[in-house]
C-alpha cells in the first residue's frame, strides 16, 4: 500500500485501500484514542497495525485529521474535500470512531448537505445519539469480533473480508446493521 504525505495540512481523504475500490473516499482518525466505545478490540486493532507499519506518514495524517475535525469550519472543509475528490461514496473512519456527540453532529450536517453522496461508518460509540442520521448515511454497528472458527450471533452479518466483491456495507438497501468480523 502506497501512502502519500498530503502536500498541505488540509483534510486528507485517501482513495480506496487493499479491500476497498479507489472509487471510495476514506476519512481516518487516529486509532484507539478516538474510539471511546472500544471494548477489548484495541488488542487486535488492524488500524493501529497500519499506524505502526507506516509510522512515517499514517499517524501524522490521522492526527492532522483529528485536529481539523475539532475546527469550527470542519463541516465546510469536509464538504469541499469530498466535492473535490469527485467520489460518491465516503467511508467515515477506516480508523477511529465518533469520539463525541459534537463530532457526530458534524457528520450528520455534512451528510445532509450532500444528499447525493453515500456515507457509511463502522462504530462502537453506541453511547451517542445516532437518531438524526440522514438516509444517505449508513451506520454499521461493529459490535462483534470473532476468533477464527467462531460463529456470529443471530442478527449479525458476518464479514468475509472482501469488500470489493461484497458491497454489503455501502449498499443502499440497509440503514443500520450489525456486522461481525473475524480477527485478522
Description:
- The chain is α/β, with parallel strands linked by helices and about 180 residues long.
- The chain has one domain (about 15-180).
- Helices cover about 25% and strands about 20% of the residues.
- The protein is built from five helices and seven strands.
- It has a seven-stranded mixed β-sheet with strand order 1-2-3-4-5-7-6, with helices on one face.
- Helix 3 crosses helix 4 (about 100-115).
- It is globular.
- The two termini are about 15 Å apart.
Tally of alpha and pi helices: 5
Rg estimate, integer Å:
16 Å
Oligomer: single chain
Helix fraction by DSSP (H/I, runs of at least 4): 25-40%
Distance between the termini: 17 Å
Q: Low-confidence spans: pLDDT under 50, at least 5 residues?
A: 1-7
**Number of structural units classed as domains:** 1
Most strands sheet = 7 strands, mixed
Strand order of the largest sheet: 1-2-3-4-5-7-6
User: What is the count of β-strands?
Assistant: 7
Order of helices and strands: EEHHHEHEEEHE
By helix and strand content, what is the structural category? Answer: alpha/beta
Q: Give the overall pLDDT as a whole number.
A: 77
